[in-house]
Amino acid sequence: MNPEEIIAGLTDAQAEGLACIICGRDYLCPRGSRSIPVGHSVTGSQLFACVACDLDAASRGDARR
């Protein structure tokens, strides 16, 4: 995914970089998940996806990845 991409249509938590943009995992509740930057919201916040979600999306050719 292009980390410079602007991504819209997210929940408030996702749009603020506080949750995975794919599965919605809350990053404020530490559960050992690793995340990677995947773009920015329309407000300019950096967005993240769980590493596992990003790999799954890549293997499916998901356009949101």
Word description of this protein:
- With 65 residues, this protein is α+β, with helices and mostly antiparallel strands.
- 22% of the residues lie in helices and 17% in strands.
- It has two helices and two strands.
- Strands 1-2 form a two-stranded antiparallel sheet.
- Strand 1 (35-40) and strand 2 form a beta hairpin.
- The termini are close together.
Sum up the overall morphology in one term. Answer: globular
Query: H/E element string?
Result: HEEH
Main β-sheet description: 2 strands, antiparallel
Distance between the termini: 5 Å
Helix count equals 2
Using only CA atoms, what is the Rg? 11 Å
Q: Which secondary-structure class do the elements indicate? A: alpha+beta
Percentage of residues assigned to helices: 10-25%
Mean pLDDT: 85
Strand sequence of the main sheet, in spatial order? 1-2
Strand content: 15-25%
Low-confidence stretches: none
Number of DSSP-assigned strands = 2
